[in-house]
Every structure is written in C-alpha cells, then in structure tokens.
Write a structure and sequence with these properties.
The structure is a homodimer of 389-residue chains.
Chain A: H1 16-24, E1 30-33, H2 36-46, E2 55-56, H3 59-68, E3 83-85, H4 87-91, E4 98-103, E5 106-112, E6 115-118, H5 121-129, H6 137-143, E7 148-156, H7 171-181, E8 186-191, H8 197-207, E9 212-219, H9 229-243, E10 249-251, E11 254-255, H10 263-276, E12 280-283, H11 298-301, E13 312-315, E14 319-322, E15 327-330, E16 350-352, H12 355-364, H13 375-383
Parallel strand pairs in A: 1-4, 8-9, 8-12, 9-10, 9-11, 12-13
Antiparallel strand pairs in A: 2-7, 3-7, 4-5, 5-7, 6-7, 14-15, 14-16
Helix pairs in contact in A: 5-6, 9-13
Chain lengths: 389, 389
C-alpha cells in the first residue's frame, strides 16, 4: 500500500472522551460560522484527505505554497487550504485561542489558532491561478475572500452530513477496501463530468495496467454549466453497472470545490488520490483547466517538477471516436483526419469526445450519438429537465 | 537516445581496407560452411543487433547464460548465440586460428577462434527451454546441433543478401531514423504473425504513451503453421498504409529464427529492440511461447529479475473484441462474459483475438470477421493460396 503524502494518514477526528470535553466547553469558545465549502475542507483535513495538513495553513506555509509549490517542510503542496475571517472576527481572536467552527448552527470542529495574518489577494490569485483576470472563477473566489486568515490545527467534532453517504468514504476506508479487494495497484480518476465514451476509454486503458480503478468525482461547488452532482453520480452508477466489473471499479466522492487552477490543481488532485491509496493517477488534456487559461498539457508537464510525488501520473492525450478505425483514437494513432486527408471522404469520420459538445447537443435537444455516450448514460441525463448547475 | 545494451553499439563490419586484406588471404583460411540462420546471426552480431556480443559465445559465457541468464560480465543475456561445427571440422581448427565463414559459397565473415569446446545438448535444452520434450521446436533444434562449438569474435566481410532490402535496417540506421523523426520514446513490437485487430489495439495503446511505434517482425525460420514472411510483411504494409500515421509507425524486419523459448526469448527480444533504439517493449500473453510449455505470463514475470535492463517492458493481458462494449477489451475491463453472465444473452458477444482462431477460419475457408481482422489485411492474406509455412 502506498504511503499517504508525508508518510502518515492524518486523523484529527476527536475520540468520544475528547469530544465530550470540547462539547462541555463549547459555550466558552469564540465561534466562527464557516461556509459549506469550508466545512467540507475541515472534514477533508480531519480524515486525512489532505494529509499531511492538520489544519488551515499558517502564513509561512502559505507563502511557500505560493512561491515554491511546497510546504515549509518541502513536501509538495500546491493549493492554499485557508480559513478566511472578517476583520471584526479577527479583532476578537488571538494566537493561542481555541475557536469553535460551525456550519448551519452545527458545531463542526475546534481550531487551535497558531497564526492570524493578512494577505494580498492579487498576489495570491496571480500565484495560484497565474492570472488576475476576473473571468477566472478561482480569481473571483480569491477576491471574495474575507480579509484575514487563521492558521492552525483543527479537531473534528462532527462532520456535516453527506448528501451521498453511500459513496462517501474516508482515506482510511478506501485503503481498507482496496486491501480487501486485493488491489495492489490502483489508478485514480478525477472528474467533474458525466462519463462519455472517451472517459471510459481512458479509464479502461489505465485499468489494463493496474488492479483497480478508483472513480472519484468532485462533489461540491462548480462553475455554472457544469453537471449537477446528482447527475454525475447517477450516470457513473449506471455506467459501472453496465460496463464495468464490480470487482475492478469503485466509485466514491470527493467533497471539495473545483478551483480550476490547472497544473497546480493537478498536483493537488494527485496528492489527494495518493492519500486515498491510489498508486497511479490519470491526467488528460487540460486537467482542471477553464477556458484557455492554461496550455493544454501544462497540467501534465508540471509533474516533471515533482519527482518525489510517489503516485505515478498516467498522461493521456485528447481522444475521439474514429468511425474508420471503429474505435477510440487520438492524433498519434489515427490517420483519418477528415480535413487533412483527401482519401477519407466522410466528414463525419471523427466524433470528438467533448463535454462542451455533449452540453451543446443536450441544450439543442439533439440525439446523443452512441459513439459519444453510452445509451444507458444518456437515458439518465435525459431524465433531468436541467442537468446543469 | 537509449544506450545500446552494454553501452556501445557493436560494429564488426570490416572497413574497405581491412576487408581487402582478409579477402587477399581468404584462400589460406580454413573454411566453414554455415546455414542461412547462422549467416543471419553473423550479420546481427556484426551490425550490433546483438550488442554487446562481438562474436559467438565462449564456453564461459555460454555456461553463465545457461545458469544465470547473464554473460560472465554480468550483463543480461538469455539466449545462446553459438556456432556449431562437426567433429571433423573441429580437428582442423585450433584456438588462435582465423577461420572463414561462408554461406552458399559466399565468404561472409572471418572469425578469430578464442574457444573450442563440447557441450551437453540435454543440459542446454533443459536450461534454455525448460524441457527436453522433443515436441518443443527449440529442443529439436538443440539436439540437431553439431557436436563442437566455436567461440570468438567475428568480422563481417559481406552480409548475405536480404530478401526484403526495403525493410532491412541496422541498429545504426534505425537509431538515425528515430532521431530524424524526432522520436524520443519508441515502443518496439515483436511479431511473427499477421496483424489482427488485437495487435493493432495493443500497438496503438502503447503508442498513445510514446512518440513512435517500431514494428519489427521476425523474418526467418519459424515453425510449420506460422505465416510466411511475405504474408507478414505485406499485411503490415497494408495495415500501416490504411490505419497508421506514417510519421508515427515504422516497419523493419529482424532476421533471426524464432526459438520459442518463452521468458528467456522475451528478454532477448527486449535487448534486441533496445539495441535498435527502443525505450519500451510490448509483451503480451505467452510471448515467444509454443503449445503449453510456459505459463501464460511467465514471459512478463521474468522481467522482475532484470531491473537493470533499461528498456521498459509494457505488459498487456489477453484481449478480445466485445460487441457489447463495442471495443477491444480484456478480462479486467469487460463484464460481458457470455458464459458467466446471465444478463448477457448473446453467446457471440466476445470475438477472441487469436492467431490460432484466425488460422482455423482461413483453413476452413470461412469469412474473416472485421472485428478480428481489418478487411484490407484479410484481402492480402486471401491472395495467397497457402499463406502458411
């Protein structure tokens, strides 16, 4: 079994007795209300999804992450996991305090405040997203942060309820499940989309070289136009039921928000899957990208700078279905490019695998071609009046 | 560019002046007539296909190869490259002599005799093929060897003509060609068969992860029932013309004989492709096997013992075409097994990719299904009255 990032699976979930102590003194603690997104981050930290993080980043770590894509202990880490609070809240909190973190009136976790600091939003956006362009959803998100950051370890009292308990697993649980299945090599697949035939092709190609496939969609806030969480989960359930061996494929959710940080998010996604126990991680074209903010293969090339990551990236190009090949294909394997090849008379020879194309067809109410999407998966999507966020 | 095995590309082809000297004294040299197979081995040694070998194995190296699958300098080497002579010839040759090697009355090479020794055929067969069963073509071959072996460096005077000059390339030439094409990573594919859709699938899957594909069929003596060399070359030419990008796939022949030594031959095949400049090498099920002499994945597992090989093996399972998946598939990716799955009513759901099955269909004169073989490739095979050796 691959080691978690940093060597140990972090567990900041309070045991019953410690939990009771915290609950007894909760009225005395200063309380901070967090967003649902932050509540899910707290759970991810506490259950080791973000190992080696034990809490929200201190200033020193944040600056290292921004400038060198590593924590101050030199471990790879590319995405800021930060807790923002208002200036008013900040005035009432001192380093050394223990604070109470709540979501929707539910006491989720306590936090040992180790650092309280301000930050430059433009600089943070520029470093993490490579831009200050407010067309980038991550930039908007950064500019909307409150003005002060709190760093420090958290202790989970109670996670906020999961909407999908059946597919909600902690790294300790996925690792146990991989072991029970006898999987020694596992490839992780990140997604925020319904599965088309191109996704299936990439997953099955990777699976051919390992023992098991871990399909791990991001459930949580995404950008407008992305598929709804329910649609993603239901389509994958149907795809696995019809086209996968149950003993070779496993579906579990990752509750976090998409950052659309391209290359930096690719490393972050790989680290998370390493914590879940994956030995390999699939990276397609423009992983975690948005619009044209990142070069198409930047999220693959960045892995050269992280030879110490331990999880092995599997790089895939862009795929399409070629009717002449009669199979999924890519620009290296298929010579039947309609526009360049006069011997190839059929302009419809290539069916592009594309989430954007899929969305277009759905919005126009046209028929979904079976070369692009499995009929069973299409049926699920078509049940929704509006499958999009 | 990957280094040749042992670090240097062997070149034992005589330059013009040296060649003239040898030709001047050829009448004084004791002459040995060799078989066509041996003539091709001499060329392979001289042009670096068998780097680091500079000649036929001495006794010390042969024993190391038999017992530890390595030369006496500890470099991986698994197949004996030996020159057998009769007892009568042996009487006339002493260590230190230079002898003349000829095929079909053509002076091919001179040889510096470094060692002359006898050997135990039963032991050699047992060590190399794992059996003394005379149903194994390699065992027969070993038992038919003459009784004495000569070891020593060779100097190529003239290679015996190639039947396929267009596809005949030395490692120096393939390396130059890879460089000109800008290929940094190249996957080698060994074959002794006409290409079916399963071969194409495996080749294209591997090509997806590298820059170029080097298709390198073995041309030379094979067992009865294998396809004729002409059929193999012509079918690959047609397949590449119709289904590959010329800038991504290259066809060249390897003139040697199949040994059917399974795992040992897999290592040998990988070393040869490393010498040609390949960085990766494809290994399917039962590579270089015959009947049931080797466990189906023994030729993949043996690579664990050769972590120093430098060329990366790419292991593939057995594939089939699944009509429900609508694609090539394997036992890890496809749940539609007709015999085990009652939900799957079609007993014809899986088309096995199998050379044996292909041969059976051809012998019965039945139609070749397009899921098994490309129509253009089938047309080539059907042109031959008898496509088999």
């Amino acid at each position: 079994m691959i080691n978690p990032h940093g060597g140990n699976l972090i567990n900041r979930v309070l045991e019953d007795s410690a939990k009771e102590n915290v609950l007894n003194e909760k009225e005395e603690l200063f309380g901070i209300d967090v967003t649902l997104q932050r509540a899910k981050e707290i759970e991810n930290i506490a259950t080791g999804v973000y190992s080696p993080l034990e809490g929200f980043l201190n200033q020193n770590d944040l600056e290292n992450v921004m400038n060198s894509k590593r924590l101050s202990n030199d471990l790879a880490w590319t995405i800021p996991i930060i807790l923002d609070i208002t200036t008013e809240e900040a005035k009432k909190i001192s380093v050394g305090d223990i604070v109470r973190l709540s979501y929707a009136n539910q006491f989720i976790a306590s936090m040992e405040v180790e650092d309280k600091y301000t930050f430059n939003k433009e600089e943070l956006a520029e470093k993490v997203y490579g831009t200050n362009d407010t067309h980038h959803p991550g930039v908007i998100e950064t500019f909307n942060l409150k003005d002060t950051l709190l760093g420090g370890k958290i202790n989970l009292v109670d996670p906020y309820e999961s909407l999908y308990p059946r597919y909600h697993m902690s790294p300790a649980e996925t690792r146990k499940s991989f072991e029970e299945r006898g999987w020694k090599t596992i490839v992780g697949f990140q997604t925020r989309n319904v599965p088309h035939v191109g996704h299936e092709y990439v997953q099955k190609t990777a699976l051919t070289f390992v023992d098991g496939l871990f399909i791990n969609p991001v459930i949580g806030r995404k950008k407008s136009g992305d598929f709804k969480d329910d649609v993603i989960i239901e389509t994958y359930r149907v795809l696995i039921d019809n086209y996968y061996l149950k003993e070779r494929a496993m579906l579990a959710i990752l509750q976090t928000e998409m950052r659309y940080a391209g290359p930096r998010e690719a490393i972050f996604h790989a680290i998370i899957r390493k914590n879940y126990g994956c030995t390999h991680f699939i990276l397609g074209r423009d992983h975690a990208g948005v619009s044209n903010f990142y070069p198409p293969y930047a999220a693959q090339e960045i892995f050269e700078k992280f030879p110490d990551l331990e999880i092995s990236p599997l790089f895939f190009p862009s795929f399409f279905y070629c009717r002449t090949c009669g199979s999924s294909a890519n620009d290296k394997t298929c010579p039947h490019a309609p526009s360049q090849n006069l011997e190839c008379p059929d302009p419809e020879v290539r069916v592009e695998f594309s989430g954007t194309k899929l969305r277009d067809i759905l919005l126009k109410g046209e028929k979904l071609p079976p070369e692009l999407i499995r009929p069973e998966v299409a049926d699920v999507i078509l049940k929704w009046e509006n499958p999009f966020v």
